[in-house]
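Supplementary Methods, section 5.1.

A reviewer requested that the exact input to the structure prediction be made available. We therefore reproduce it here, unchanged from the version used in the analyses.
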Amino acid sequence: MTSRIENATNADHIKGYVDEAKAYAQKLVREGKVEEAKDYIAKIEPVVKEKAPQYAGVLESVSKALDKVGDVASDKLDDAKDAAGAAADSVGSAASSVADAAEAKAEELKDATVDKAKEVKDATVDKAKEVRDATVDAAQKGADKVKQALK
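The structure derived from this sequence is encoded token-by-token as follows.
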């Protein structure tokens, strides 16, 4: 997974890989392999922070939830698996909300960029009209002077 993230050139692809990693960690937790899930996330997290920091929060949330699962102590294996399943669901919810927030911020930045581009375009069109009007006025004045001189 780390090599796929390292080689990704598109943030959307990285988001997909982060979602896959989250799902795999949840699967490991459901199987009672909490330490393996922690190790898996620990390997991927630095690569995500480097390539797409906006999605690092998703893995941090997963990691924190895994720490909570690791602290759960139970005498019965079934009880531990139930708690792990609940924590895995919690991880999914937390990670989804962080990913949604990152996606919303990216959309907000895109909208702001589009708005700014429109402002610049409008200002450029206005300036071009001013220059055109000034040129037409100067040409008209020049024509008027030539007419006066010819009279």
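The radius of gyration is 30 Å. These observations are discussed further in the main text.
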